[in-house]
Amino acid sequence: MDTALLLLLENPLIKRRLAKKRRFWTHNINRSRERFGEFFHLYKSLQEDSERFYRYFRMKESTFSYILEKVEWRIKKQNSNFRKAISPIEKLALTSRFLATGLSYRALADSFRMGFSTVASIVKDVCTAIWEELQPIHLGIPSEQDLLEISRHFYKKWNFPNCFGCIDGKHIRIRCPSNTGTSYYNYKQYFSIVLQAVADANCRFIFIDTGAFGKQSDGGIFRESALYQHLVTGKLNIPADRNLPNSDTKLPYVLLGDEAYPLLNHLLKPYPRKNLDAQKTIFNYRLSRARRVVECAFGILAAKWRILTKAIETSPENAEKIVNCICVLHNIIIDKEGIALIEEPKESTDSKKNRKNNSSTEQARDIRNCYMQYFNNEGAVPFQYNVL
């Protein structure tokens, strides 16, 4: 090393400044991370108990290893001259714990013996890596054959033919963003972004749209989404119209939505609740019974990933990354571990959704009427009359 530089470094004033600066590079508590950090004293023990591993990470060890294998190269960093880099497996463990519990960055920083900003950076990087690496595999755009398979499951499980998905929106609570006015303030009187999703018959997501303002209605969000554009322009790989089972009536494949959505050729919604006759009541019941799979999907999502039960304390942009990651994890776990049998949930009683600007075409109304006639004739099932 140059003599002049050595003399400079030996200067007491320079040495004090360097020492003061480096003192905050790693906090004294965090220096013992590999000895006392939660990951190091708990992970190996969890591996020895599959039930506790699942309860801690909300997934099996095989699923955890699969995700790690896919994203490891994206989140791995090289050791520096000053400190050892945090391993990918510890980063994934921390992020999984954050999503599973909703603990604050500060609480996780204390538990894992890391800095606050380090935890925030890890969560953002891992969520982004999971989305970009695994979304094409587990939440990619379905092919025509995929939609046909989904429709077969809907008919088998929920007695609704020619259905390739059910759509609904879920408000994701967030911390009040600065300088946004009431854009994120929803009718439930808290700040949120909206996750709009389409679920298949097994509560698996096939389309998602995340990040809309909380004040927007489901119908308004839908009309601004890529899904709507694909529906009206025919770019969605929807199969050709097909005869309903045991019938000569040929009808299009459809999504199922609630009253907040527009009635379209490929999207059915219930008849208005006023002046319902017996046939329309039965149609509404059959549609509602099938459509609840998306409500089940949201319920499973929130029960497993407890971050969704409280306000996400990040910017709306980072909250969107977190929600996208959770939706991919939801599909990965179903693909790898399956899903328990779905109990039929109670009928939704939410009547406050904005239902404006949902005018329909005559052709769309004719399609709904044909489905109504089918459910009251060839497609009738004995239990449907209990609703009357």
UniProtKB/TrEMBL annotation:
Keywords: Hydrolase, Metal-binding, Nuclease, Nucleus. Residues 167-331 form the DDE Tnp4 domain. It is found in: Nucleus. This is DDE Tnp4 domain-containing protein. Coiled coil: none annotated. It comes from Acanthoscelides obtectus. Its main location: nucleus. Signal peptide: none annotated. Belongs to the HARBI1 family. It holds the Pfam family DDE_Tnp_4. InterPro entries: HARBI1-like (IPR045249), HARBI1_dom (IPR027806). Its cofactor is a divalent metal cation. GO terms for cellular component: nucleus. GO terms for molecular function: hydrolase activity; metal ion binding; nuclease activity. It comes from the Eukaryota.
